[in-house]
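Attaching the record inline, Q. Sequence:
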Amino acid sequence: MSYLEQNMRSIALGHVEARATKFISDVYVRMTIALFASAAIGYLSVSSGLLLWGFETLGNGFSMAIFISQILTVVLFQASVFKMKSSTAQLLFAIYAAITGLTLGMVGLLYTLDSIFTIGLASGAGFAALVTYGKLTRRDLGPLGTFCIMALTMLMVYSLGVWAVGYFLPNAALLASTIKIQGIFGCLCFSGLTAYEAQRLKKVAYGLAESQPTDAQVESFVNAGALNMFMNFIGLFLSAMRLFGSRR
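Structure, as predicted:
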């Protein structure tokens, strides 16, 4: 290979690296913006009395309505993110972040501010470490990701079953044990998913950088990646709160 060919190849590899780095940066910037927006909405929902009004008016059905709204928004987003316009995808992402803010507001009603702040910082540090591991490890994390998705699905079904039983037959002991189970398995599953998604995001970034897709295609992948990592962080944080949070 001549010097010119080597130089051209180095330039091409540099362009691929730059495009991949920008893609990953865009994903985490968008995710971070969504996190701050959710935190702000959570704070406002508590300080304005909106959450208290919702619980006083609808009871436990209010929290279930929030949960179902989150699920429906995610399903619609994931099913159509690569078909819809980027502006529509961003709107759905914003709606999901706003609904998640209400969930964070409920956390503020249940737990002390000190524990929320401490566990939030710890979750952020843990999330960053897991992302770094996922990006750097050469081990294929695909099987781990599949297992974590299956485990989370089972945990969700279990939690819904316990919620349904508790709704009609309130049992404080059952609720307390369920919260701990959700916390333990949630932390494990979302930790595995975070590392897996970080590795997959890196593969997607370099794949897109080499294929040179349209701006619309890149935007769709950025939206999808940001939502996935956003959900992983929120899941990790909520699981840690269930396990270590100090209740009011």
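The chain has one domain: 18-244. Confidence is low (pLDDT under 50) at residues 2-11.

More tomorrow.
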